[in-house]
Amino acid sequence: MLSSIHTSDVQSTINRLVSFFPAEEQLQVRARLAENLAAIVSLRLLPTKKQNSRVPAVEVMRSTRSLQECIKDPAKTGEISGFIARGRGEMMQTFDQHLLDLLRANKISVETALTAASNPTDFRTKLALEGGDPDAVDDEPEDKIEGPLEIDPDSRF
Question: 10, 71, 97, 103: which could form a disulfide with 61 (CB 3.0–4.6 Å)?
Answer without folding.
Answer: 10
